[in-house]
Every structure is written in structure tokens, then in C-alpha cells.
Amino acid sequence: MRTKGLLIVSVALTAALSMACGSGSESVNVNANVQAPTVDVTTAQAIVRQIPTYFEATGNLAGDAQTDVAPAVGGKVVEINFDVGSYVNKGDVLLRLDDRDARIRVEQAEAQVQQQQRAVDQSIANLRQAHVRLPDPTLIEATELALANRPELEINRTQRDINLLDQRLYRDQKKPQIDLIAGYSANGVGGNQNPNFNPTFPTACTVNPTSPACRQQQANLATLTGSPFTDILANRYPTYRVGVNFNIPLFGDKTASAQLGRSQVEGERIVTQREQIEQAIEVDVRNAIQTIRVRSAQLRSAAIARENSERQYESEQRKLDEGQSDTFRVLERQTALAIARSNELRARTELNKAIAELERATGNTLKANDIDIK
Known about the structure:
By secondary structure, the protein is mainly alpha-helical. Helices cover 60% and strands 8% of the residues. The longest helix has 68 residues, at 254-321. It starts with a helix and ends in a 6-residue tail after the last helix.
């Protein structure tokens, strides 16, 4: 198609030149007296070549992959380093945000971290000043100590002693009973003489008022009249009693037998309860010892983590001083160090609680804290 187009253009150009020449010759012949104008004609050799074809179109280019880029924090854009369609490389800074507010927040966060760090350091110092005694008894030693000191066993032992006394009492009540009885009492007589008394029979005083019999009668009346307390205090009428009381159950004492059976059952319950208490104490001691070992391992792990965090923080701080790091990374290391120290403090607290639990399980809390109850 392109070759044919070139030939047509060449033929048309040759025909045009011929017509121009023929027209000029005829004009000369007709108007010989008129001078013909000079025409500059430029000729060129025909060249056979391909004529390129161009297509113009308007549209938008879309990439094979598209990625949305968003900053980690929001802020005002103060600088854009690339335009649409520009080529970028890994690590190039596309734009810059106004970091004044972020710097203020970083300074505030650093101040808070430093304040919390001082509080943690003070707490660690106070805790390290306290001497932590890490007990490491064997299970047998701790169990024996608990069985000797736990108050539950002492209460159970007291209940057992009371039950044994009850059984002895009810057993004795089933036996024949012999009681020796002795008694003493004092009596008194008192009152006033009845002036209207008229004896039916003659008395010594009505017969002969001056006789000795009358005087004796008057003395007896004086004794019988007056206050009865005088006779009691003078012990004029004592009464003594002495005797023996026999109580022999013919068909057995049913009440005492029932009470004895009940006390024996209660004694068996107390023994079973003691066995349960001893088993529970052994479980408490075992769990307490295991907890101490776990908490001690956690404390050692937390201490190692805190030391590593301190080294990382110091290393990041040196990088910042040399210009190889930024404040954000230093702040991250500082926050991690504060968390590690807090974890160490928490682990030490848990270890102290585990030690206190072991002292409670063994009944040795007062002695371990040098407290003596008198």
C-alpha cells in the first residue's frame, strides 16, 4: 500500500510540471510582444521511500500494580519530592510532614517515661534493700513442719481429747452407782408469846408461880421466843445426816449406752477429719514449694530480660549520639526497658507472695517474721 502511494505522488508531480511548461510556450506564441515572467522552479529527484503513518490518541496510563502509600501518622505536608509519573527508588522520601507536633509529643512521652523510670528504679531499689530469704526445704521437711504447726490439727486434737472424755463418762454411767451421802443443817425457833393463850390443864406457873418448875417453864418460853437467827448462830438445834445411796440398773442404762455410741461415732468422724486435714496440708505444702520454684525461675528470666533491655537501650543511645538512629527508636528501647524493669519487679513480688504462702502452709509465718506470742 505504501509503494503504490509513492508512485501516484511521483506521476502527479511530473504531470503538473508538464502542464506548466506547455502553458508557457503557447503564451509566448500568442503574445510575442509581452515579456513572460520568470518562474523559479525547483526540481528534485524522486526518491522511493516509506511514508510513516501516525495515530494520535488521548487517554490515561494505568500501571500493572498499584499501591496506596499512607504515613503512619497524620500531619501537614510541607514538602513533596516527586510528581505524578516520576520514577522512584526504594528508600526515597516521597514527602515530608510537619513534625513540630510530633516532636512535642515525643518530648512529653520521654518525660513521662523518665518519670516512670525513676519510680520503677526507686521501687526496685526499695525492694532490693529488703532481704529476700528464699527457702528451699524438702517436701518431707516442710510437711513435718506443717503437721507440727498448723492450728487446724491442734483444734482437731483438742476435739479428740474432749471426745475421749465423753466416751469415758458415758461408759462409767453404764456401771452401777454408789453414792456416799452426808449432810448437816442448823435450825432456829423464834416468835412471841400469845397473851391470850389459856391452857386447858393447869401448869406449874398457875399452881405455884414460885416453884422451880415454874422457873423452868419460864426459861423454856424465853428460849422458844425471840429471833430464830439467834438459835441458828448459836447452833442450838443442829441436824446431821449420813447415808449410802445405791443405783443399780437392772436392764442396763439405755440413755448412757446411746450417748456412748454417739460419742464413739463422733470420735471416728474426728479421726477421719484429721486424715483429711493432713492430706490437704500436704497438698498445700507441695503446691507452695512448686510455686516458689516457678516464681524463682520467672524472676531470673525477668532479670536477664531487663539486662538485655538495658544493653539495647545503651546501644541505641550511642547510635543516636553518632547520628545513626533517631529519637523514636531510642524511645522504643526506653519503653521496652521500663516494661522489662516492671516485669522484674512484678516477678519479685510474686516470689515474695509465694514465700509467704509457703510460710502459711507450714504454719511458720510468725516465726519467720520473728514474732513471738506470749
